[in-house]
């Protein structure tokens, strides 16, 4: 029996490019917290928008359309290896096609490599604003297109009393004007550790705070000021 196919495995490129519909984005962000493979795909594609910004958005999205699904009859291990190889090949192909498209359009400006990734305040612990079993830390990674936020959120098991239920959480980014924008959501229960990855167009200097809120009550559980 073959392993089940991850229905989200081709969403990573569209997520990085910002072409997912709002409902799909929320669904994929919830999936990222429990899928290391998809989270790794998003991280691997993070530098691609810097290249794709040189060509029209609709053409850039078309370059990353997933390949038609085939029906190979192979063992699960071979199938997983083939999918991994195709994902890596697609990223390399995108870069090559972008360079070719620029050359065909007569663009003479040399493509400069994206700036080196700068990790700002890695693993910064978040402060609890109300007592809860939830703790978290984060790091902000500068990118040519904005900032990537990597969160590690843990939900401790209470030592006494009834077991708390699973809750939905949301990650908010606060800018210099005090405006808070939701950039990720996920669910978690006692004993779990989730690794949400979010992106924002704000550059690092424009992010003044990050919050984790309890969705049902819009209550700020954890906050860090930057």
UniProtKB/TrEMBL annotation:
Residue span(s) of domain Putative zinc-finger: 14-39
InterPro entries: Anti_sigma_zinc_sf, Znf_put
Keywords: Membrane, Transcription, Transcription regulation, Transmembrane, Transmembrane helix
A Pfam family hit: zf-HC2
Signal peptide stretch: none
Gene3D superfamilies (alphabetical): Anti-sigma factor, zinc-finger domain
Keyword Cytoplasm: no
The name this protein goes by in its record: Zf-HC2 domain-containing protein
Domain of life assignment: Bacteria
Segments crossing the lipid bilayer: 91-111
């Amino acid at each position: 029996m073959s392993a089940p196919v991850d229905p989200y495995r081709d969403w990573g490129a569209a997520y990085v490019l910002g072409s997912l519909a709002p409902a799909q984005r929320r669904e994929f962000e919830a999936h990222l917290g429990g899928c290391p493979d998809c989270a790794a795909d998003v991280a691997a594609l993070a530098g691609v928008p810097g290249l794709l910004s040189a060509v029209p958005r609709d053409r850039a999205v078309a370059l990353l359309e997933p390949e038609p699904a085939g029906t190979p009859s192979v063992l699960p291990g071979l199938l997983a290896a083939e999918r991994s190889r195709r994902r890596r090949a697609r990223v390399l192909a995108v870069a090559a096609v972008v360079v070719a498209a620029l050359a065909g359009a007569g663009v003479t400006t040399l493509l400069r490599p994206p700036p080196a990734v700068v990790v700002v305040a890695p693993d910064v612990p978040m402060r609890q604003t109300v007592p809860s079993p939830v703790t978290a830390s984060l790091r902000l990674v500068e990118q040519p297109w904005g900032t990537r936020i990597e969160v590690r959120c843990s939900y401790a098991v209470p030592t006494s009393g009834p077991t708390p239920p699973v809750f939905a959480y949301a990650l908010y980014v606060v800018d210099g004007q005090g405006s808070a924008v939701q950039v990720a959501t996920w669910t978690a229960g006692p004993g779990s550790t989730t690794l949400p990855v979010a992106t924002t167009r704000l550059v690092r200097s424009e992010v003044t705070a990050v919050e984790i809120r309890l969705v049902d009550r819009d209550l700020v559980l954890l906050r860090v000021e930057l």
